[in-house]
Amino acid sequence: MDMYRGGCLCGAIRFEIEGRIGSIVYCHCSQCRKAQGSAFATNGIVRTIDFRLCSGQDKLTAYESTPGQTKFFCKVCGSPIMSRTDSQPEQVRVRLGTIESDIEERPMAHIFATSKANWEEITGMLPQYVSYEPGRIMTGNEE
Ligand SMILES: [Zn+2]
Ligand SMILES: [Zn+2]
Questions:
Q1: How many domains are there within the chain?
Q2: Of the bound ligands, which one is closest to the alpha carbon of residue 13?
C-alpha cells in the first residue's frame, strides 16, 4: 500500500502515514464542531509509529481541550491535524480532511449524533451513536 500524505493549509506542516487508518467516524460533539468550525469532524485512528511528521514541527502547536486530551494544529493557518489522548499514547486521531491522498478506508459511524448542531441533518445509512461507537475505549467526554 502506498503511504498517505497530508499537510496543513499553509503547507508548513507535512506528514506521512505508513499504515492503515482505523475507526473513521464523523464526530458531531460540540468540541469537534468548534475545533473544525463546521458541523462535524472526520477523524480516524492511526498508530503513533505510523504517523511521521515530515516538516513544520516548530509550527505544530497544541491545546488541551479536555484534561488528558490534546488537539494539535498549525499555529500559522489553524489547520487541525490530529489529537492525542494521554492514556493511549500508541495512537493518534488524525483529521482526515488534512490528508491529500485518496483514502481506502471508509467512515463507519456518526458519533455524538445527538450533540449535532440544530441546523444539521445527518443523512445516509451509517449507524448513529449517542456517544462513542461500540468498542471504543472510553477516554474522555468527547473527541
Ligand atoms: Zn499551516
Ligand atoms: Zn468530537
A1: 1
A2: 1
